[in-house]
Design goal:
Belongs to the ABC transporter superfamily. The chain is α/β, with parallel strands linked by helices and 235 residues long. It has a single domain (4-227), classed as Rossmann fold (3-Layer(aba) Sandwich), CATH 3.40.50. It is built from six helices and ten strands; from the N terminus they run βββαββαβαααβαβββ. The chain has a six-stranded mixed sheet with strand order 6-7-8-3-9-10, with helices on both faces. Strands 2-1-4-5 form a four-stranded antiparallel sheet, covered by helices on one side. Strand 1 and strand 2 form a beta hairpin. The longest helix has 18 residues, at 173-190. The chain binds adenosine-5'-triphosphate.
Length: 235
């Protein structure tokens, strides 16, 4: 059995918009083991990004515990949170968020500057199939290529945890599938824990664990005993 990496215990998140409180998360509980590929699904506004942002140390829970490697990150001070975000977590966003005036290689090099255990940026860009494009700027790359740079940037830090928020949301069907294949391969090769948000339930069979979120609560948690490769899934 794999070791537990993440525990959400009775996590709630409330935002206030003016006078009006918005309960984004209510009593959210789940576990994620080391090396798991986890898909979080749910409709728009269900609370998926809120979960990911809290897990990534970019937002804080209103109450409850968020335990990562036996440490409750809700108790972290600013410095501990900065270290956590810098060392332990890699982020991949829907719109890539590359720095436009840096080349692909420079984007990856820039992100590893703050991390101690980082991997060689050039090797990682080669791994994601972009060795011929390392001196190109983001504007010279297709959406799929930019997302590969963003994935390279996230994994070059050698984080324990890779968090992906709708990574294929801006890509066409085949390009999106190839990005999911890359994430699947990285999970297999490096045993890195991956948590991926989507509203596309069709990709759920590629996950070890599927967490369904609805109106700020967990609707269900399913473990796929036999998962499918993204190549076997169509939608
Ligand atoms: N900073 C904020 N201030 C106020 N309300 C917020 C804030 N962030 C999120 N919310 C609210 O919290 C709820 C959950 O939002 P969240 O972004 O987590 O949903 P989601 O499932 O990721 O949706 P989507 O698929 O559209 O990105 C929504 O009602 C949203 O409007």
């Amino acid at each position: 059995m794999n070791k537990n990496l993440i525990r959400f215990e009775s996590v709630a998140k409330e935002y206030t918009l003016g006078e009006i409180p918005i309960k984004a998360l209510v009593d959210v509980n789940f576990n994620i083991d080391e090396g798991e590929f986890v898909v979080i699904v749910g409709t728009s506004g269900a609370g998926k990004s809120t979960i990911l942002n809290i897990l990534g140390g970019m937002d804080t829970a209103t109450s409850g515990k968020v335990v990562v490697e036996d440490k409750d990150i809700t108790k972290f001070n600013e410095k501990e949170l900065t270290n956590y975000r810098g060392e332990k977590v890699g982020f991949v966003f829907q719109f890539y968020n590359l720095i436009p005036n840096l080349t692909a290689l420079e984007n990856v090099e820039f992100s590893v500057e703050v991390s101690k255990n980082h991997l060689n940026p050039r090797d990682i860009l080669e791994r994601v199939g972009l060795i011929d494009r390392i001196n190109n700027f983001p504007s010279q790359l297709s959406g799929g290529e930019q997302q590969r740079v963003a994935i390279a940037r996230a994994i070059a830090k050698n984080p324990q945890l890779l968090l992906c928020d709708e990574p294929t949301g801006a890509l066409d069907y085949n390009t999106g599938k190839s990005v999911l294949k890359l994430l699947e391969d990285i999970n297999k090769e490096t045993q890195k824990t991956i948590v991926l948000i989507t509203h596309n339930l069709a990709i759920a069979p590629m996950a070890d664990k599927v967490i369904k979120v609805k109106s700020g609560t967990i609707e269900s948690i399913t473990i796929n005993k036999t998962k499918k490769s993204i190549e076997e899934i169509d939608w």
